[in-house]
Write a structure and sequence with these properties.
Layout (H helix, E strand, L loop, with lengths): L19 E4 L9 H9 L5 E4 L6 H17 L3 E5 L2 H6 L4 E5 H10 L16 H4 L2 E6 L2 H9 L4 E5 L14 H11 L4 E4 L5 E2 L18 E2 L3 H6 L4 E4 L7
Parallel strand pairs: 1-2, 1-10, 2-3, 3-4, 4-5, 5-6, 6-7, 7-10
Antiparallel strand pairs: 8-9
Helix pairs in contact: 1-2
InterPro entries: Aldolase_TIM, ThiamineP_synth_sf, ThiamineP_synth_TenI
Organism: Agathobacter rectalis
GO molecular function, one term: thiamine-phosphate diphosphorylase activity
Length: 240
């Protein structure tokens, strides 16, 4: 971990663009989705993962085209999620894949679980993509992901979160073990959120932040002390 990246502004919890990945979920937005994503882009996170995997592929293609353009406007990296064919159709070499899909493509080529009606062939996707992210839930997953060619991974869930009600968090010791086991960037996910500047204990509680620059990430320092490159935020970013 490069401690020089922790350029704390006002408090050690200040949002650092190099250390945050925003994960999308249009179902959590009270504003029009693209309007919300522009608000996120103005915070300049390290990346935005367009995780609308319940969309039909053609609809995702149309959305991805617009979101990629929006991210370019603000110099934010856009990671498409799951839809390999869409990424190749748009010649966008940045993708986040669930580990089973990543493994299926590496070991078997085209997966039966992903439609292949786009014009681009996905046979050589590993050569095409510059960045391949994946999600892991164990040290064994992490080692496998790196061997399969992932260039970064998310690991979780680290803290208790409403998204995983009833499931105990894996905790910081788990995160440290994952970070120690691999040589690629690891981003913690689960229970990490942004908060108004006066609140250092915020979790996944719904909030609206009108003063966009005046936010912090209470748990960011904790995950980075475990060796993580940063953290992922979904619900907070969809409400900021």
């Amino acid at each position: 971990m490069n401690k020089e990246k922790l350029l704390y502004e006002n408090s050690k919890y200040a949002l650092q663009s190099d250390n945050i990945i925003a994960i999308t979920n249009r179902h959590l937005c009270s504003r029009p989705f693209t309007e919300q994503l522009e608000r996120v882009c103005k915070l300049h996170p390290h990346a935005i993962v367009l995780r609308e995997k319940d969309m039909p592929e053609a609809e995702y293609l149309s959305l991805a085209r617009d979101v990629i353009a929006l991210c370019k406007k603000y110099d934010v990296q856009c990671m498409l999620h799951s839809f390999i064919n869409v990424a190749m159709e748009l010649e966008h070499p940045y993708i986040h894949l669930p580990l089973p899909i990543l493994e299926a493509y590496v070991k078997k080529g085209l997966s039966d679980n992903i439609s292949t009606d786009m014009s681009k062939s996905t046979d050589n996707y590993q050569q095409f993509f510059k960045v391949i992210g994946t999600s892991v839930h164990s040290v064994e997953d992490a080692i496998k992901a790196e061997q399969l060619g992932a260039t970064y991974m998310t690991a979780g869930h680290i803290f208790a979160t409403d998204c995983k009600k009833g499931l105990p968090p894996r905790g910081l010791d788990f995160l440290k073990n994952v970070c120690d086991a691999v040589g690629i960037p690891v981003y913690a996910i689960g229970g990490i959120n942004i908060a108004s500047s006066g609140d250092s204990t915020a979790s996944d509680a719904p909030s609206t932040y009108d003063a966009m620059p005046d936010i912090n990430v209470p748990r960011l320092a904790d995950v980075m002390e475990c060796g993580a490159a940063g953290g992922c935020i979904m619900s907070g970013m969809m409400r900021v």
